[in-house]
Amino acid sequence: MTSPRTMAAALMAATMVVSLSFFLGRYLSPMARRSQDDARTVRQEALPRPGRQLVLVYVGSSRCGPSNQPDVVRAVGTAMTSVRRAAEASGSGFVAVGIARELSPVSGLEHLEKVGRFDELAVGQGDLNQASRRMISVDHPGIGATPQLIVLERDLYAQGAAIDNVNIQERVLLRRVGASEITRWIARGAPIPSSTPPSPTKGEPQR
Questions:
Q1: Is the pTM of this model over 0.85?
Q2: What would the pLDDT profile of 3-45 be if each residue is shown by its tens digit?
Q3: What is the pLDDT of residue 167?
Q4: Which residues contact 160 (CB under 8 A, 6 or more apart)?
Q5: pLDDT digits (tens, 9 = 90+) for 110-143
Q6: What are the CA-CA distances from residue 124 to residues 62, 75, 77, 105, 162 (Å)?
Q7: What number does CATH give the domain 46-187?
């Protein structure tokens, strides 16, 4: 005859198995699927490697009315396609960067998710967001307004075996600030100024 203590231990073990199965199904399985989806959605041309890249930078905010206008959201998508095609035509990589000038990281991520699919995201800290400061105040000074699109030409020069040991040279090819400038640029076919040859003093980027 099974003792009450044995029955209690068996019941506890069964409860633990059920709880573990629930945890695995509820949390770990979606995490694994999301990890697989993320791996599949990383674009090869956006991978960091020595060479030239065309970089499209979007700066917006969920609190900015024009940033949320449907025509602006569509324009950002069209700009991504246009800059990507220009990169492909020149044999360059393409990277789309989304910056949300938000105090709330959650609001920033929600806004950027609505606008488009980006390869790199920067949210939180409002005007002190480091990527925002770099694109507007420090490295590439410009008007601190939203929405805006910036197209950069970036050359990555290998300084060693590790990919993080690179010399990065960037220049702004164009900047469009405000809904009107952005939509007019798109209406003209989103032309991009001619690129420049890599600097001979830095060595040829490896493709």
A1: no
A2: 656 555 555 554 444 444 444 455 444 444 444 455 456 776 6
A3: 82
A4: none
A5: 999 999 999 999 999 988 899 999 999 888 888 8
A6: 12, 24, 23, 4, 30
A7: 3.40.30
Phi, psi (deg, nearest 5) at residue 74: -65, -40
**What tokens were used for 28?**
């770990």
If DSSP states are collapsed to H, E and C, what string results for the chain? CCCHHHHHHHHHHHHHHHHHHHHHHHHHHHHHHHHHHHHHHCCHHHCCCCEEEEEEEEEECCCCCHHHCHHHHHHHHHHHHHHHHHHHHHCCEEEEEEEECCCCHHHHHHHHHHHCCCCEEEECCHHHCHHHHHHHHHCCCCCCCCCEEEEEEEEEEECCCCCCCEEEEEEEEEEEECHHHHHHHHHCCCCCCCCCCCCCCCCCCCC
Extents of the domains making up the chain: 1-41, 46-187
Beta strand 93-100 with 51-60 is parallel
State the Cα–Cα distance between residues 176 and 42, nearest whole angstrom: 27
Percent above pLDDT 90 for the chain: 53
Q: How many other CB atoms are there within 10 angstroms of residue 13's CB atom?
A: 10
Q: How far is residue 200's CA from residue 202's CA, in Å, rounded to a whole number?
A: 5
